[in-house]
Amino acid sequence: MEGERLELFERCLGELRQRCVPLRVQLHFVDMRMGLSEHQWWELIERGGYMPMLDEIDRCEPFFIGLYGERYGRPIQDYKFPKDPIWNKVRKAFPVGRSVLELETYWGALRDPRRWKPLFY
């Protein structure tokens, strides 16, 4: 989806940002994969590098827009979640073999239905 990502950042999001100015709304766009090669991305993920990604999703609350192509992503063999008990629910939801894409979707849209109001199209 590299072409779609570039089109979105170069044309659509700039116009959307301009339309928000009169409304006094500031938009900040986050693409955690931008600028990383496929190899760099997977090196980061395998070292547990998705934790800052989850923090960034939290920082963007209450908005999470997931853009999905046809790939599910490579399954992760070992999520390196913190040992803190608050992560037990996430550990149960993400046994070995789930992809980072699924983790992002769970974290950004499905983790706490009282906090997030997901819309899927």
Summary, kept brief:
The chain is an all-alpha fold. Helices cover 45% and strands 0% of the residues.
Q: Which key features would you list for this structure?
A:
121 residues; mainly alpha
Task: Walk me through what this model shows.
- This protein is globular.
- The mean pLDDT is 79.
- The two termini are 18 Å apart.
- Helices cover 45% and strands 0% of the residues.
SSE layout and pairings?
Elements lengths: L1 H19 L17 H9 L3 H10 L28 H6 L6 H11 L11
CA distance, first residue to last residue: 18 Å
State the helicity in percent bands: 40-55%
Query: Total strand count, please?
Result: 0
Sheet-strand content, in percent, reads under 5%
Taken in chain order, the helices and strands follow as HHHHH
What is the number of helices? 5
- How large is the radius of gyration? 16 Å
Largest sheet, described in full?
Answer: none
What class, by secondary structure content? mainly alpha
User: Any low-confidence stretches, pLDDT <50, length ≥5?
Assistant: none
Q: What is the overall shape?
A: globular
Oligomer: single chain
Mean pLDDT: 79
